[in-house]
């Protein structure tokens, strides 16, 4: 499974799902789609998905032409159907983490996304948390939910954290030229 997934990624055959079509998720989706990957943009906001289906951008950094071009090529597919996760090789979580009244990140959206993933998790997938959150979220919150499916991280699936690096409106540093930091839960997850 490991070598097969690695080969799919290197050959741009990996099917990628991004949960959360806000300024981080949509930017990342366009970045992958423009480089030849097939991407599914998943969001619970039906109005947001409908706007994408109608080729309307709501993010200042994403021109309508990018949406049109990637959709026409079959590289970008907006959906509210979380069941698509069963067919994906990689799932990236880019949901909001608003600050709570206690001045801490509200991770309820992360928890909800992970529950959706767990219901569809299959062997050979890589899951990456990209939402802004506090240290330990991947290991303490996400890992137990995913391993509760009976699958083992580093053997059956791969799990990593990559802090979002999108700076909306910045014309110098974009998704294309900003270095990514990625940390896997295991050596194999880091490599994938």
Relevant terms:
single chain; 192 residues; alpha/beta; seven-stranded mixed β-sheet; 7 helices; 34% helix; 15% strand
Task: Describe the structure concisely for a colleague.
The chain has 192 residues and is α/β, with parallel strands linked by helices. Helices cover 34% and strands 15% of the residues.
Give the beta-strand count: 7
How are helices and strands ordered from N to C?
HEHEHHEEHEHEEH
Q: Mean of residue pLDDT? A: 94
Output the strand order for the largest sheet: 3-2-1-4-5-6-7
Q: Main β-sheet: number of strands, strand sense, barrel status? A: 7 strands, mixed
Structural class computed from helices and strand pairing: alpha/beta
Radius of gyration: 16 Å
Helix content: 25-40%
Poorly predicted regions: none
Please report which band the strand proportion falls in: under 5%, 5-15%, 15-25%, 25-35%, 35-45% or over 45%.
5-15%
Distance between the termini: 11 Å
Number of helices: 7
Shape: globular
């Amino acid at each position: 499974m490991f070598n097969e997934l690695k080969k799919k990624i290197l050959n741009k055959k990996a099917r990628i799902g991004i949960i959360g079509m806000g300024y981080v998720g949509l930017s990342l989706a366009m970045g992958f789609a423009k480089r030849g990957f097939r991407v599914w943009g998943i969001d619970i906001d039906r109005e947001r998905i409908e706007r994408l289906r109608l080729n309307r951008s709501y993010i200042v950094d994403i021109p309508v032409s990018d949406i049109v071009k990637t959709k026409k090529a079959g590289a970008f597919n907006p959906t509210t159907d979380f069941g698509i996760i069963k067919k994906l090789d990689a799932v990236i979580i880019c949901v909001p983490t608003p600050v709570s009244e206690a001045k801490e990140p509200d991770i309820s959206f992360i928890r909800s996304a992970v529950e959706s993933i767990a219901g569809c998790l299959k062997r050979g997938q890589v899951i990456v948390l990209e939402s802004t959150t506090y240290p330990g979220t991947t290991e303490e919150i996400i890992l137990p939910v995913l391993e509760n499916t009976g699958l083992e991280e580093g053997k059956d699936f791969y799990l990593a954290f990559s802090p979002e690096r999108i700076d909306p409106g910045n014309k110098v540093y974009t998704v294309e030229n900003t270095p990514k930091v990625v940390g896997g839960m295991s050596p194999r997850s880091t490599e994938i």
